[in-house]
Amino acid sequence: MVDEAVVSKPARPQIALPKAVIVRREDLTPDLWKMWLQPEVPFTFKPGQYCTIGLEGIERAYSIVSAPHEPYLELFIELVPHGELTPRLWKLQVGDKVSIRPRAKGIFTFEPKWPNHVMVATVTGVVPYVSILRDYLHTGRAGHRFYILQGASYHDEFAYDKELGEYARRHPDWITYIPTVSRPHEERNKGWTGQTGRVNLILEGYLQRWGLSPQDTLIYACGHPGMIEDVKARLIPKGWKVKEERFWK
Fold first, then answer.
1. What is the pTM (predicted TM-score) of this model?
2. d(CA 143, CA 88)
3. What do you get for the CA distance between the two ends of the chain, in Å?
4. What is the pLDDT of residues 114-163, one digit of tens each?
5. In what order do the strands lie in the sheet with 175-181?
6. How far is CA 100 from CA 186, 191, 237, in A?
7. I need a labelling partner for 192 at 20 to 30 A (CA). Which of 94, 152, 157, 247 fits?
8. What residue ranges define each of the domains in the chain, with the CATH number in brackets?
């Protein structure tokens, strides 16, 4: 049976959303790219938050790479071949526009009450950590330690390894960056000499190596839901606090 009251209800008017123009694009792999946007209206956010962009009426949320002081919104996006939005975004070039919700959202932000911050990510999950560190350095804050542990299948998926590695070299006393590949024997990883293994499987070993404890350390987990669930299953029963942000495909 059809509810006649619902059928006769007036349709809600479509609200025109602000636009953002693509000012720069950088392709990294056949399915990963960076994109810089200039919103047509003022857009404010906190490091670690996300923006909602869209095309042809389809919208998705993307964490913001850039820090609030930067002139453009930087995004790091993975192409989902059968997705609704990313195949459309993949075709866009500099000068094209997307819609953008006027407010950033999200609570996956820096919590300064903790002295130690262990930031675990898979591929694009590193995005909010880059934003947090850029802002932390720009504002001249001090007194915290950051440990970024990023996993990927292939080493060319580490889009911000040079930047994070440089932070670690400049500030070795309070920034550590460890990238790890999970498929070290495949041809695409030929020449890789760094850490290997799934990031969720090597995390506890690094927590011990770094001498961290649940009393003074916050664990952030961002990226693939399976990785996050495994990190939580391993650490929460042992007293660690885990803050999470999932990337659904």
1. 0.92
2. 43
3. 35
4. 999 999 999 999 999 999 999 999 999 999 999 999 999 999 999 999 99
5. 195-196, 175-181, 145-152, 116-122, 217-223, 241-246
6. 39, 41, 40
7. 247
8. 19-100 (2.40.30.10), 116-246 (3.40.50.80)
